[in-house]
Records
---
Amino acid sequence: MNTEKIAARRLTSEEVSDLGLQEEIFVSAELDDISLDCYAPAHLAKPGKYFEGGSFTARTVFGKEIQVLPNNAEERGIWIADEAGEEIEVLQSAGVLLNLALFVPNGNVEALEALYAAAREAFGAGIVQRWNEEVVAVPDVKVDLFEEPARGRKGTSGQNRDRRALDIYPTRVRFMEASAGWKFIVEPHHEVIDDTPTI
């Protein structure tokens, strides 16, 4: 386990309330409900002033959400880097896990193996691993993927509603998340035809 010793101090609930989303903090490191004897870099899930009751939610750089009561002496609390503080051990990143959705035209086993071999050659045979693989046949159909506000404006027709185009392949929506306050709309693909008169 790769850790680094840094100087930090523990924050009170009042101090955490003044933090924004950009402040780097440190919270207890947890992986799959296993509590590690060190801390993880994190950020608040929303600005501190919006939390109530002294309980804060922090999201670590490893994608784990943790509920913290800073004033609870039985918990490890929330820490921030401070040269005048005490030494804590912080868990370091060993790399980046990529969740990839690969579209391989006319894909077959040989094509997938060639992709895997190229990745291993680029990054090292002992580095690239396939943890979870799902091969899905993609139908030869195009759809238009849009985002629309989750709550549409009253009195607007379907022709001039707020929307933004995202993609034209049907399976990628499984790997995407709609923007906050927006929802996905999937429709049959229509080619854009420019019928502007020309001379």
---
Amino acid sequence: MNKKLGAAMSGGAVLVLALAGCGGGGDTSEQLDAWAKDVCDSVQPQAGKIAAANASIQKETTDNSTPQEVQAADAAAFQDMSDAYKAMGSAVDKAGPPDVEDGPEKQEDAVAELNGLSASYAALKKQVEALETKDQADFADGLKDIAAELDKLGRSGNDALRALEEGEVGRALAEQPSCKSASATASAAEG
């Protein structure tokens, strides 16, 4: 009943990879390295929360779960994801703009995107909480709508994060141990 929702949830972990910086090595300035360390150290625990939320949804995708169990797990996972993306936005905002051309614009766009994702997951939480759980077929139909929204979230909305991690910024992020850890956590959540 909830397999599509579980598959759509794994898309959220992909967004963490964009911020975690998957680029290759290269020379970066000390100031940019310090910025990247600050961002990565703050993002890493949030990547773990998103991975745990994804795992929680995956766990409840078995046909043995009652609609009430699925509803509770999904609502909690969406709240965790909303909180994690909000914290990521705050981390990027607090770090200030990266020391690159268009740094302030890249930072502003990434913060707005992360806050938007937070709001989207909060809205999904309300949507899943509003589903009627007495009739399994009606509940399953409601989950299809939520899965469609999740699929949309997974396919769109990470352009600003990609822009943030391009070039020097991406190289600086990729060199940080905590970003490598966040990337590995998110990859594991997808599998």
